[in-house]
């Protein structure tokens, strides 16, 4: 191809020619235009609150509106008698520090601390902070079930420890002091932001409340959370619930306006209510340290006795940050609302089981609007990332794994987002667990956005979830198949998809709109 002499061309034409020349010289990445999902468009131009694409922008600490805090220097566990020499039992010193420090950072200086008991943070504004994962190590030689036995059984009756799927050596524990404020007196639809209440007495603008509803014995709410395609649900026994924590922005008579759209319909048969949301524990966390468990061969599914590092239970606006975990049965268990796990590394030197796994759950998310981000799973768990328990609005982003499994453990996990992920080998993305007749694995509008892998990924099998799921930008050889009221599979190459991270784009858009930009 002959190019005209540059001096004979106008400046715009010269720019076009230069761009064409770059393409001819191998700049294929330059020539490849960004592709936008039909669900989002450019900068969210195609999105509405009623869209099949949920609003995930409220996930994480302080609803994503503030970064995780850095507390000023606090008191050291060594002031309470901790040695950090790897030999002395430092449990009593940690317990004393947690009992006496009313707020602020509890520093764990560089060292190796032997812990043989369970630790709890039950106050707001308390942070257990190491000097860094490469400097501060908590060594935990005994499983939780030996320290505080907690036997249970699987859904099939197999005896196992309840620590197989819950608990942590350090638990940040609270409750929401939830009490009924008023009933919703009229139906509301998914996407609505104004509801009618029986009485607005006791409500005020700026108040944080929980919009909640519970199921009927016939499991009608569960079926709704699955978008009408639930699969067998008889073992749910009416236990489904739907919850959204939101702020009141306006009150006109008995009409209450919320700061975010409803995630599902609210109908009288599900007894919809506004409830108080007054969490007892906020602004607490665990950060900058390593949890290390003994090296022993992994014995397989349901043999776990509780080599688990940390749990967040019934708390809001709390976090686990910059934490490394070695040789665990499971990684963090997170429940509550608006919590963040940021910068997690899971590793092991344990011998794996016959399935080449070295633990049960990598990370488990329950509750609503929690965020797991910047994670690196360097070993295989039976379930790498789990969502379960009627949870919704949780975001899993910017992570990678050896061979990622996105475990949807039934119980209607709906409207959760998985975005900007490296699935590694890509052989078991849809591998899931959970008992029988508890619904399909994933519920309505589970969203999978920009997932890369070493091998092509296929649309999940029918038992995984309903057609109302959204799959956009997966590594695949399958063609695009989009139906507004059915299957949604946009086969956009992951590296061409914009935005790369849906959660980040939605949050940026919301904050810009709030600031008037």
Question: Helices, strands, pairings?
Answer:
Layout: H1 11-24, H2 28-31, E1 75-76, E2 85-89, H3 91-100, E3 104-108, E4 111-114, E5 119-121, E6 126-130, E7 136-139, H4 144-147, E8 151-153, E9 159-161, E10 170-173, E11 180-183, E12 194-196, E13 208-214, H5 220-225, E14 241-252, E15 255-258, E16 273-276, E17 285-292, E18 310-316, E19 319-326, E20 333-337, E21 340-347, E22 361-365, E23 371-377, E24 383-387, E25 395-401, E26 406-408, E27 417-422, E28 447-452, E29 470-474, E30 481-482, E31 488-490, H6 502-514
Parallel strand pairs: 1-3, 2-4, 3-6, 4-7, 5-10, 6-17, 7-17, 10-18, 17-19, 18-20, 19-21, 20-22, 21-23, 22-24, 23-25, 24-26, 25-27, 27-28, 28-29, 29-31
Antiparallel strand pairs: 8-9, 11-16, 12-15, 13-14, 13-16, 14-15, 30-31
Q: Outline the low-pLDDT stretches.
A: 1-31
Biggest sheet overview: 16 strands, mixed
Distance between the termini: 45 Å
Described by the principal axes of the CA atoms, the overall outline is: globular
Average per-residue pLDDT, rounded, comes to: 94
Quantity of strands, as a count: 31
The helix content, as a percent range, equals: under 10%
Per DSSP, the total helix count is 6
Helix-and-strand structural type: mainly beta
What's the alpha carbon Rg, rounded to whole Å?
25 Å
Strand proportion: 25-35%
């Amino acid at each position: 191809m002959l190019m005209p002499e540059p001096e004979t061309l106008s400046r715009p034409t010269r720019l076009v020619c230069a761009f064409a020349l770059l393409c001819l010289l191998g700049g294929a990445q330059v020539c490849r235009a960004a592709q936008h999902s039909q669900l989002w468009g450019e900068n969210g131009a195609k999105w509405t609150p009623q869209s099949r694409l949920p609003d995930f922008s409220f996930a994480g600490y302080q609803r994503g509106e503030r970064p995780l805090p850095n507390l000023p220097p606090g008191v050291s566990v060594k002031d309470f008698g901790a040695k950090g020499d790897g030999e002395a039992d430092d449990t009593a010193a940690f317990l004393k520090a947690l009992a006496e420090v009313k707020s602020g950072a509890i520093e764990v200086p560089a060292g190796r601390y032997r812990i043989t008991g369970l630790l709890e943070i039950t106050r707001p504004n308390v942070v257990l902070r190491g000097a860094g994962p490469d400097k501060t190590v908590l060594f935990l030689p005994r499983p939780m079930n030996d320290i505080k036995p907690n036997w249970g059984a699987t859904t099939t009756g197999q005896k196992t420890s309840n620590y197989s799927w819950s608990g942590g050596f350090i638990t940040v524990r609270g409750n929401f002091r939830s009490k009924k404020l008023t009933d919703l007196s009229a139906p509301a639809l998914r996407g609505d932001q104004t509801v009618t209440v029986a009485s607005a007495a006791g409500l005020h603008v700026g108040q944080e409340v929980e919009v909640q509803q519970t199921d009927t014995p016939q499991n009608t709410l569960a079926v709704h959370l699955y978008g009408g395609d639930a699969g067998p649900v008889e073992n749910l026994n009416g236990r489904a619930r739907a919850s959204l924590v939101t702020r009141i922005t306006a009150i006109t008579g008995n009409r209450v306006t919320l700061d975010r759209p409803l995630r599902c319909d609210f109908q009288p048969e599900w007894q919809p209510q506004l409830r108080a949301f007054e969490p007892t524990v906020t602004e607490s966390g665990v950060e900058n340290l390593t949890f290390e468990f003994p090296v022993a061969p992994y014995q397989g599914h349901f043999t776990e006795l509780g080599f688990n590092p940390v749990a967040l239970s019934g708390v809001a606006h709390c976090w686990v940050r910059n934490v490394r975990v070695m040789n665990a049965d499971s990684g963090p268990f997170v429940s509550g609302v608006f919590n963040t796990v940021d910068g997690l590394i899971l590793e092991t030197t344990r011998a794996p089981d016959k399935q080449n796994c070295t633990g049960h759950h990598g990370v488990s998310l329950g509750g609503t609007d929690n965020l797991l981000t910047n994670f690196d799973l360097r070993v295989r768990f039976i379930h790498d990332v789990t969502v379960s328990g009627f949870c919704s609005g949780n975001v899993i982003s910017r992570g990678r794994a050896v061979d990622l499994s996105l475990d949807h453990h039934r119980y209607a996990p709906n409207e959760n987002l998985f975005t900007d992920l490296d699935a590694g080998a890509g052989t078991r993305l849809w591998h899931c667990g959970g008992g029988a007749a508890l619904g399909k694995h994933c519920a309505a509008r589970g969203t999978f956005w920009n997932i890369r892998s070493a091998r092509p990924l296929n649309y999940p099998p029918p038992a995984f979830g309903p057609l109302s799921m959204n799959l956009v930008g997966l590594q695949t050889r399958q063609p695009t198949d989009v139906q507004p009221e059915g299957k949604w599979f946009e086969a956009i190459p992951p590296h061409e998809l914009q935005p790369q991270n849906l959660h980040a784009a939605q949050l940026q858009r919301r904050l810009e709109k709030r600031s008037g930009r």
